[in-house]
Amino acid sequence: MQVGSLDDVDQGVYHCRAVLHIHGSGRTLSLPQNLTAWALASAWRGVALCPLAGTVVVTGRTADGEVTALDDDLAEHVQAVADTVREMLARWRRRPPVSDEAAIGELLAYAARDVASSR
Fold first, then answer.
1. Which residues partner with 67 through β-bridges?
2. Mean pLDDT of the region 99-110
3. CA-CA distances (angstroms) from residue 24 to 30, 54, 66, 109?
């Protein structure tokens, strides 16, 4: 299975059983940041990663590195983090965080909770 074209898609492995197919030129083209993909990848890695931009597709990964269907538990991670990001953005529109650092810390803490609680 191929997602996009080889020239435009990078593959990021942030979890041993998943692949994030990331727009290869997303940051260069100034595409919007993908907070959901960034929070998910950061939670899986346990550290704040560099921003991800543009559309991201999450698939499963076999032990041999082949693309496959996403396991149910990882699909739950994706859904939980997506829900959290949507809720956080709505909350921040009503009451903005005191700083970018506070927003990042809060979002990462909730994403880590989402990933840990759905394991």
1. 61
2. 95
3. 12, 9, 19, 27
For the range 51-55, what are the long-range contacts, defined as Cβ-Cβ under 8 Å and sequence gap of 24 or more? 51/27, 52/12, 52/20, 52/22, 52/26, 53/23, 53/26, 53/27, 53/29, 54/22, 54/23, 54/26, 54/29, 55/23, 55/31
Q: What tens digit of pLDDT does each residue of 42-89 get?
A: 999 999 999 999 999 999 999 998 999 999 999 999 999 999 999 999
Q: Which amino acid type is present at position 13? A: V
Please report the pLDDT score of residue 119 as a whole number: 54
Q: Which of 52, 44, 105, 54 is nearest to 80 (CA)?
A: 44
Q: Which residue bears the tokens 């921040």?
A: 92
Token readout for 66 is 């082949």
CB atoms under 10 Å from CB of 62, counted, come to 10
**Sign of the four-CA dihedral 101, 97, 107, 67:** negative
Average pLDDT across the chain, whole number = 90
Please check whether residue 10 is in contact with residue 37, taking contact to mean a CB–CB distance below 8 angstroms: no
